[in-house]
Each structure stands twice: as structure tokens, then as C-alpha cells.
Amino acid sequence: LPRLVGEKKAKELIFTCDRISAKEAYERGLVNKVVPPDKLKETVLEVIAKIVSKSPVIMKLAKLAINRSLEVPLSMGMQNEGEFFGFCFSTQDQKEGAKAFLEKRAPKYTGK
To answer: Domain 53-112 is classified in which CATH homologous superfamily?
Structure first.
């Protein structure tokens, strides 16, 4: 929480247990979207559809790169991200993605 909202705001939120509005949560980067309750399921399904259309192995590497970058200084995080980016190019899914792009078709990822 302190990384997202800063130390002072994190302490205020935790110590006071005050609720914040959806708008404030969005503005502070605590949530990615704010939608009306009746659009929640539709919005979630749209996001899920975008994610599952991507290569599982590339998504795993991206998640690892992001998570590990948060644990180390910026320069090391950038180095880690570069290494993970390089790993992506050694996957079959990356080759399939590039081939599908050139052939103007949807990729068929295998997770390898």
C-alpha cells in the first residue's frame, strides 16, 4: 500500500480504517477500473477475454518480471525486466505470435 499511495496516506488509511470512494481508489491507483454494479460482470469478462487470448508462458514471464521488479531497486528491476523480455523470444509462443501477425491470423498459443 505505501508504494501505491505513499507512506503517510497508507498510515492514514490503515490507522483510521476510513473508507474511500471508488473514485478516490481509482485516482490513487488502487483499482484499475470503476464501473456501475450492473456492468461489473461484463467488464470483468472483457478483461479476462483479453488476458486469456495471450500466451500463457509470456503472461507468466511478464507477471514474474513485474513482481520481481517491485522487490529491488529500479536499476536492477529494469535489468530483470530486460532479461525476462529476452526469455520471451526463446519461447515457441513468441514465434507463433510473430508468425500469426505476419499471416494476419489469430495466434494458436501452446504455452511453450
So the answer is: Lyase 2-enoyl-coa Hydratase, Chain  A, domain 2 (1.10.12.10)
